[in-house]
Amino acid sequence: MKVAIIHYWLVGMRGGEKVLEQICALYPQADIFTHVAIAQNLSDRLRAHDIHETFIARLPFARKMYQRYLPLMPRALESLDLRGYDLIISSEAGPAKGIIPGPDALHICYCHSPMRYIWDQYPVYRANAGRIARLGLDLSAKGLRVWDVASAARVDHFIANSAFVARRIRKYYRRDATVITPPVDISAFDGADRKPGDHYLYVGELVGYKRPDLMIAAFRQSGRRLVIIGDGAARAALMRQASPNITFLGRADAATLRHQYATCRALIFPGVEDFGIVPLEAMASGRPVIAQARGGALETVIEGKTGYLFHDPTPEALNDAIARFEAAPPIAPAALRHWAAGFGPDVFRQKLADFIAAARAGHDPCK
Questions:
Q1: What are phi and psi of 305, to 5 degrees?
Q2: Domains in the chain, ordered, with CATH?
Q3: In Å, what is the CA distance from 104 to each residue of 52, 79, 91, 298, 357?
Q4: Which residue, of 12, 213, 264, 306, is most buried by count of CB atoms within 10 Å of its CB?
Q5: Sheet of 177-179: strands edge to edge?
Q6: Cα–Cα distance, 210 to 206 (Å, whole number)
Q7: Residues 6 or more apart whose Cβ sits within 8 Å of residue 37
């Protein structure tokens, strides 16, 4: 069986690329197609594959400004020659599923998210974009939505990374999706029982839809210590808003990240995410999570068992959830690690392999 894997762009090792690694573990001989690849930023497992870039990679400044070429990505995908591939797995968060498969090929889309910037998060991205980027969105978003819906018809089966994403797939594409949650490598995190420190932790990009502003406001009010790991377009503005009890560490190496997970009181997860691997990494380190009660967090954060939830996206509601956490009996680190183990890479690979085997068994190219 000849396998092609389509991934939107390969510029670092974030959640989508960790999922891609596990897909590649199932199909070590698969070819990878992507818009832009920066090899030095990728894991050895991904670099072991033949990686083919679309013409986007040859455009000026594409290595840094690839997202500016979003309006050209449909054409780039459709220009890929995928004749001869029996199985095509597209990894969708940016444009990836819009390839043109051969008539006999089985096309399965693992959807991390329908493109946020043209669907439900469009107002957020537009509000935070610069003048030129906003004009680009205004000119291209409608056409991209039409193409995005049309290209969904080229997918034989959708897999969603959460029930939240499955609902969005149903809303925007009118397609059903099977949920297979992403993997978290619990062995990569500190499993030793450590006494927690006096600080809370945030890990993630500093961008609008992740709501770091809400978190900054809450900790400015309460005076509790907060450590922030991550960088992004909103960092400078957030640092101006922050009080002395809030520390920005920027991007952190693996050792620093493990240490911060293992020694924080709890992870703060203030935004609405499609799924959220970061909360499971915290739980794998034996630490609970305080999260907004929307999106993928509802599938991993169980009130009083793995963390605490706040329902209103306000600093007051977040501080109330933190107060409830501090007043309650501690959650056992072993119980948190046990819960996270249910989302391990071996569980993910088995579920995905079973799904693809069933899809292949039922695939009739003549229908």
A1: -110, -45
A2: 3-183+345-361 (3.40.50.2000), 186-341 (3.40.50.2000)
A3: 22, 18, 20, 38, 16
A4: 264
A5: 51-53, 31-34, 3-7, 87-92, 106-111, 157-160, 177-179
A6: 7
A7: 9, 10, 11, 51, 53, 57
Residue 307, both tokens: 């963390």
Q: What is the pLDDT of residues 184-207, one digit of tens each?
A: 888 888 777 788 889 999 999 998
- Is the distance from CB of 88 to CB of 31 less than 8 angstroms? no
Region of 4 (left: φ > 0; alpha: ψ -120 to 50; beta: rest) is beta
DSSP state of 332: P
Residue of 253, 262, 283, 278 lying closest to 190 (CA atoms): 262
Hey, how many other C-beta atoms are within 10 angstroms of the C-beta on 109?
27
CA distance to 228, 239, 354, 355, per residue, from 358 (Å): 43, 50, 6, 5
Asked whether the predicted pLDDT for residue 250 surpasses 90, the reply is: yes
Most confident of 14-18, 45-49, 66-70: 45-49
Instruction: Check residue 303 and report its DSSP letter.
Output: B
How many helices and strands (H and E) does the chain possess?
14, 13
Report the alpha-carbon distance of residue 16 to residue 39 in Å, rounded: 16
> The pTM is what?
0.87
Cα–Cα distance for residue pair 225/15, rounded to 1 Å? 27
